[in-house]
Amino acid sequence: MRAAVLHEIGQDKLEVLDDVEAVGFGPGKVRIRIRATGLCHSDLSAMNGVLPQPAPFIPGHEGAGEVVDVGDGVTGLKAGDRVLVCWLPACGVCPSCGRGQTHLCLAGFMNAGTPNFKRPGGDVFGFAGTGTFTEEVVVGAGCAVPIPDDVPFEIAALIGCGVTTGLGAAINTAQVEAGSSVAVIGCGGVGISAVQGARVQGAAQIVAVDPVASRREAALRFGATEAVSPDEFADARQRITAGEGFDYVFEVVGKSATARTAYENTRRGGTLCIVGAGALDDHFQVNMFELFFDEKRILPSMYGGGDVLRSYGRAVELWRAGRIDLESMITHRVRLDGINDALDQMRTGTSLRTCVEL
Questions:
Q1: In degrees to the nearest 10, what's the CA dihedral of 213, 218, 222, 228?
Q2: C-alpha distance from residue 250 to each of 22, 73, 300, 329 (Å)
Q3: Residue 88 contacts residue 168 (beta carbons within 8 Å)
Q4: pLDDT tens, 168-221?
Q5: What is the pLDDT of residues 151-173, one digit of tens each?
Q6: Cβ atoms of 267 and 295 closer than 8 Å
Q7: What band does 79 get if pLDDT is binned at 50, 70 and 90?
Q8: Closest CA to 262 of 271, 270, 252, 251
Q9: Which residues are registered as beta bridge partners of 85?
Q10: Contact of 130 with 3, CB cutoff 8 Å
Q11: Fewer CB within a 10 Å sphere, N or C end of the chain?
């Protein structure tokens, strides 16, 4: 079958091959024919080594498709079912799951160390235990989440990561209050979803901050009340909050420099929500006096900070009701052969989300 493979960490191009095989099918596993997959910035971060991932590997973790076959012991799924791929399935028995924090379950991360593809030259890993830049993938049954018939594959794919992460940061983690002021730093697919989440929650002012003009323009269409470049952020803070700072600031870049900017633009007693996934050696610093004196809440948000299955269902209902716009987030569509062009579009900020149709 065909798949896009990164041979070594640090390479910026994927090779589309036709000699890849999905392996590992058996009890408790599901084989999925991928129909659509989105490009998420985390795929780039894994390719360049910011996020740890063994290589060679197939990127992609934001996918949807049809069940081809189910292994022994799998219940609730059958061939032909339409599903999205959950890259962080909950085991249901660990301490995090027992506390209701299923998004902190580590079972899914353990899958990343087991190759689920092979080529004549050897094993190939799937990013985050999945790898959706391919025609078929074998995953644990918990990674295959049924989707309603009225949800297109490309919409389901977005819900599988970026939409759930951004919406959840605003709704689950920060719990944005109606009438509040919000700033979102970084307005790719996840940042735009955070903008939409803040709008759903009833924020009065939502300022989108991004260096790319097209993304600023997009943020306005998705609910931002104002969109500014990083150089204009200080002025926006002065005008909108009289210099006090915003009630909520979302950092959706994954760098200590932007996290520090977000902290400085959060009002005393306000909330800084860290959504971007950063590098192990990139350290965010605050001094002990400001940490105590300013009483700003620093809240990391992992995968939207809530029960993943519930978050999926909520995203579907909000989309059905017209409260969030997911179709317009897909700015580009390509086939698998166009994957490297799509990656370049993401690097330059040209795209919000590209849908790869398989």
A1: 0
A2: 38, 42, 10, 19
A3: no
A4: 999 999 999 999 999 999 999 999 999 999 999 999 999 999 999 999 999 999
A5: 999 999 999 999 999 999 999 99
A6: no
A7: very high
A8: 251
A9: 144
A10: no
A11: N
pTM for this model (two decimals): 0.95
Amino acid at 303: Y
* Alpha-carbon separation of residue 341 from 136, 335, 336, 351, 356 (angstroms): 22, 10, 10, 11, 11
How far is the C-alpha of 12 from the C-alpha of 216, rounded, in Å? Answer: 26
Residue 220: closest CA among 184, 250, 270: 184
Helix, strand, coil content of the chain in percent (nearest 5) = 35, 25, 40
- Single-letter amino acid code for the residue at 275: V
Give the length of the chain. 358
Phi and psi (nearest 5°) for 145? -110, 120
SS3 49: coil
Q: Is residue 101 packed enough to be buried (19+ CB in 10 Å), middle (13-18) or exposed (0-12)?
A: middle
Tokens of 130: 């999945």
Yes or no: say if 136 and 130 are a contact pair by the CB < 8 Å rule. Answer: no
Within a 10 A sphere around the Cβ of 80, how many other Cβ atoms? 8
Quote the CA–CA distance of 327 and 29 in Å, as a whole number.
Answer: 31
User: Please, what is the Cα angle at 154 between 1 and 22, to 5 degrees?
Assistant: 20
Tokens of 286: 């605050």
